[in-house]
Amino acid sequence: MGHTGFQVSAIGLGTVKFGRNSGVNYPRSFELPSDTEARQLLDLAKGLGINLLDTAPAYGCAEERLGFLLSKDRNDWVIVSKVGEEFSDGQSRFDFTPEYTRLSVERSLARLRCDCIDVVLVHSNGEDLAILHHYGTLEALAELKQRGLVGSYGISIKTLEGGLQAAATCDVLMVTYNPAHRIEEPVLKACHEHSTGVLIKKALSSGHLDSTEQDPVQASMNLSLRHCATSSVIVGTLSSDHLRSNVIAAHNALTT
Q1: CA 142 – CA 157 distance, rounded (Å)
Q2: Nearest CA among 142, 135, 168, 117 for reference residue 3
């Protein structure tokens, strides 16, 4: 994953569905999994070679659940969490101040039951440039990295200009990239030039893939994973069948 030193699987498991089922943009509603179901999915992911988990405070109770479920095998996973966004009462609230950033990381450490979060990203609300230059959010994360509480840090970007600037200063970026959304491809190129890690979000368009493609999942995996900048593609699912098929598609993208 760029210059971070982390070796990550081509697929990472997103965990928003572990902790939140309201205010999400998926084609079908779903119930949160039981602890047993969540543990089985994590075991399957691990058995398939996945070692990357993506979570966030805005994902409801996902962090707390992961802290409980991973208590015995935390060191087998690279965990990505975030700062900046909270979700409650059906609405997102954003706070990028250094004080809140420190509070959020310390709270996530307690929820995840760990001493260091491998990667912490700023959950941008679209104000990428302000986050980079005015709020002091990244400076707070750099301080937390120096203290050993954060392994690497960066931004889950929302804008092309923000991504281009962040590529030169961050350890990791999370970038939207799929067949219907390629506007941020220059960010991927910039990350490659700077050896910045790249996590692809919405590679499968949150379940809203182009149905005109013969195999839309494979087409999306081909696009994302064949780009030289990509470290991992984050996919969120509660279905063991979907997880297996996503891994097969990733394998095909990288080997054919």
Answers
A1: 18
A2: 168
Instruction: Please give the angle made by the CA atoms of 159, 243 and 214, to the nearest 5 degrees.
Output: 75
Number of residues that this document lists for the chain: 256
> What are the pLDDT digits (tens) for 162-201?
999 999 999 999 999 999 999 999 999 999 999 999 999 9
CB atoms within 10 A of CB 211: 6
What is the predicted pLDDT for the residue at 209? 64
* pLDDT-derived band at 88, boundaries 50, 70, 90: confident
Give pLDDT tens digits for 125-142.
999 999 999 999 999 999
The two tokens of residue 177 are 């990239």
Please report the sign of the dihedral spanned by the C-alpha atoms of residue 227, residue 229, residue 231, residue 235. negative
Q: How far apart are the two ends of the chain, measured CA to CA in Å?
A: 22
Of residues 148, 191, 152, the one with CA closest to residue 6: 152
Report d(CA 106, CA 30) in Å as an integer: 30
